[in-house]
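User: If only I could read backbone structure tokens as easily as an amino acid sequence. Those tokens are not coordinates but codes from a learned vocabulary of shapes. Could you go through the record with me and say what the backbone is doing? Here is the record:
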Amino acid sequence: MGLRKKNARNPPVLSHEFMVQNHADMVSCVGMFFVLGLMFEGTAEMSIVFLTLQHGVVVPAEELPSGSRTLYHYGVKDLATVFFYMLVAIIIHATVQEYILDKISKRLQLTKGKQNKLNEAGQLSVFYIVSGIWGMAILTSENCLSDPTLLWKAQPHNMMTFQMKFFYISQLAYWFHSFPELYFQKVRKQDLPGQLIYIGLHLFHIGGAYLLYLNHLGLLLLMLHYFVELLSNICSLFYFGDERYQKGLSLWPVVFICGRLVTLIVSVVTVGLHLAGSQNRNANALSGNVNVLAAKIAVLSSSCSIQVYITWTLTTVWLQRWLEDASLQASGRKRRSRSRKGMENGVENPNRIDPPPKKKEKAQ
């Protein structure tokens, strides 16, 4: 008996194509494993570590003006929670890709390169919109917008509220899920260094704000950053739909530079001035108190370095794009000048007779 030919749509089990096509289903099975663990007494305690927030402490009413409530600090168990919600982020990523972005790309009939850029811009736009709405709700509920002094005041006992900690856990989970997505999305090798740096910078600053209890300041800076990035991705989406929206892309760098300047101003004013006014020599940065010289220098230098790096990256990208557009326009002008040689007043002259080519004179 002859072997049956393998169907191109059904790749071999555990092959690269099989992992790419079915990674969402496999991740869902792993996630359901932790959820089903809640049904059994022997595994319930372990599953709770992955599904719910840990390291909570009940603060009595005598120490809080708002009454007794549960506040949270960070710990080793947060790694398990981040891992579970990283699985959730992978599932949501695959759902948005299959039911929204794939249908849009099929309708627009884009090339492979533009399709990859459309997928990236679409995924990030959804994430920025959800994170922006969620973050602004937290800032409003915790009175950060009405009382800006909360930006440099730590929570009692270096703790955070439930919604604040869950927000940071979700942010870390999303950016950690971007590492396996590089494999699932078949990112080209030449694009990997830039993607890894982009993801690593987000993890570094979100994790730094989380570990140093700069919750409100980090959240406000994230909202500014996500707003600028959302405008960039929305302009890209409109451009892929219709190239007439190129003017929107040209206006985005102005908004980008303004966003970077506002981020720098907020960082310097909050960390450099207000925290410097109440120096505490007995403070310890490892305990979550950033009111020490080493912590202030680290926060300011990291904030400034990321803004300089992002601005430099934008400048180089736009210079390359400007040079490419200039070369294309120059080549287009040459073609039009050549096509006009055989035309007179926009209409080809049928009576035009080109002179015969000159014959080369024979050498005497």
Observations:
- The chain is about 65% helix and 0% strand.
